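Thread amino acids onto this structure.
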């Protein structure tokens, strides 16, 4: 072989090497303990720029062509046949060494899995070069598969790199919320996916040398045969008292209570800590640990769509409700001292003389909430079995009445017992108050105001009224399926693990007490 042929072959190889310089990412220099004289030490950032080129105004020195240098040395030595073999062998060795493994991206949704291509080397890098921004692309299957578990959401993981971007979008253009964890190696949707919807997932990851891998997946969530809905017995924007509970009722019994609880998000304009408590399989309440701060704006968003509340039963829609905590009105009535202390926005408004239930009709102790108001109320003893003509029968209109037990106990105006108020208990169970005080209390009341009765020989009955405040903090936590406290503020709520005291109310016993017959008191 002539010397001119060797030189010509060498120059051709140099030109090809220069053309490939910006796509070849790895050379021998990074593998050496020290760079050769005259050769710049290769760093990770230099390797990145060797792939994708300088950007943002930055420039880095060109990397020498190691193969070309070796070929020159061989040519100068005159080993023409060995030169050709060495160049060809060096080309294969450098091609192997110049492989930058792309990040592997895996999308998991329920029973489905989408993964990026597993290939490496020149084929993958060329695929990356063909896409905008040097991006390797792996596409999902052409047919749209069905996700049988929308309650599990979407999980995305990256290997040999980190996630740079993830989007989950429905066919209607609605994006699903999610967050990165584990140093951007994983990403997961915050809530379940809506049933019977088509979603497209686009996930991008970057390897250690800056090459992007994009993986996509398109699928449709199942259309469940059985669904449930939820409601809150409160009008939008309603103003309620500082003791008010958020009461959520379901159309179907809930078995997967923890998953349902974790779909709830509470926004509060003032920070509050509380817990969810399952009153039954169809009802769960949220109560703060202490009374709500006055004038707090609250919004509940229940992300129930796609949540599996029971085997094969999925939430069909989300639920949202907002309300406002009004002024703080707290009343404590003592059957022993015959007075009722009333606090208005933390200031003692008065200690009013009262008369509670006479012996045999004792007003029961307990921490209640007002749940009904009327002015006037027709109180008829026939409602609990004392009929006209029988001893103790009455039928009378009572004014400024605020109810706190299902069995018929009220705080109300009682002009007929003013002489006994503050002295002796003479009512049929209600809290008798002088007309002026009763009118003030009624005018300042809203549903959810705390009314506590103390000093009675009779204990209150769980479930006779809104009795959620009968529970200590520990018992309230024990009634949660998660066992966690809920900390809410203007950014939303989060579940916070905390110690749980033993429960005295088992799930099957909630709201199942046998209540006394309604008692409407005329005195």
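Threaded sequence (523 positions):
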């Amino acid at each position: 072989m002539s010397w001119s042929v060797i030189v010509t072959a060498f120059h051709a190889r140099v030109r090809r090497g220069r053309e490939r310089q910006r796509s070849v990412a790895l050379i021998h220099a990074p593998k050496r303990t020290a760079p050769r004289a005259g050769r710049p030490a290769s760093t990770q950032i230099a390797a990145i720029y060797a792939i994708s080129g300088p950007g943002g105004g930055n420039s880095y020195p060109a990397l020498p062509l190691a193969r070309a240098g070796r070929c020159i040395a061989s040519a100068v030595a005159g080993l023409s046949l060995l030169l050709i073999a060495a160049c060809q062998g060096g080309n294969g060795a450098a091609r192997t060494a110049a492989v930058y493994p792309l990040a592997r991206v895996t999308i998991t949704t329920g029973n489905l899995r989408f993964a990026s291509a597993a290939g490496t080397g020149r084929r993958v890098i060329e695929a990356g070069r063909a896409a905008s921004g040097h991006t390797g692309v792996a596409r999902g299957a052409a047919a749209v598969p069905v996700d049988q578990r929308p309650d599990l959401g979407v999980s995305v993981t990256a290997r040999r790199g980190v996630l740079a971007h993830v989007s989950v979008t429905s066919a209607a253009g609605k994006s699903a919320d999610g967050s990165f964890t584990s140093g951007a190696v994983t990403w997961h949707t915050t809530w379940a996916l809506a049933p019977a919807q088509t979603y497209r997932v686009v996930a991008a990851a970057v390897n250690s040398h800056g090459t992007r891998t994009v993986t996509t997946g398109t699928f449709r969530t199942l259309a469940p045969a059985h669904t449930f809905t939820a409601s809150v017995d409160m009008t939008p924007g309603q103003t309620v008292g500082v003791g008010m509970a958020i009461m959520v009722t379901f159309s179907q019994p809930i078995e997967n209570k923890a998953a349902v609880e974790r779909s709830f998000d509470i926004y509060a304009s003032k920070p509050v800590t509380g817990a969810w408590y399952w009153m039954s399989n169809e009802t769960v309440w949220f109560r703060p640990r202490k009374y709500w701060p006055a004038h707090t704006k609250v919004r509940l968003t229940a992300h129930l769509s796609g949540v599996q509340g029971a085997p094969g039963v999925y939430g069909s829609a989300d639920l949202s409700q907002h309300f406002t905590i009004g002024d703080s009105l707290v009343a404590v009535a003592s059957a022993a001292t015959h007075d009722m202390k009333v606090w208005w926005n933390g200031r003692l408004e008065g200690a009013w003389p009262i008369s509670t239930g006479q012996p045999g009709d004792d007003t029961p102790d307990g921490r209640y909430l007002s749940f009904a108001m009327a002015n006037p109320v027709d109180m008829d003893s026939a409602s609990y079995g004392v009929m006209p003509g029988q001893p103790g029968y009455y039928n009378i209109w009572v004014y400024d009445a605020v109810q706190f037990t299902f069995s018929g106990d009220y705080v109300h105006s009682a002009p007929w017992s003013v002489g006994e108020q503050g002295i002796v208990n003479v009512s049929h169970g209600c809290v008798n108050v002088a007309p002026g005080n009763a009118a003030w209390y009624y005018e300042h009341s809203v549903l959810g105001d705390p009314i506590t009765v103390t000093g009675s020989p009779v204990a209150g009955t769980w479930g006779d009224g809104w009795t959620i405040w009968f529970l200590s903090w520990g018992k309230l936590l024990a009634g949660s399926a998660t066992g966690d406290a809920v900390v809410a503020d203007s950014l939303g709520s989060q579940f916070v693990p905390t110690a749980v005291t033993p429960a005295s109310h088992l799930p099957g016993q909630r709201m199942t007490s046998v209540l006394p017959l309604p008692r409407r008191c005329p005195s």
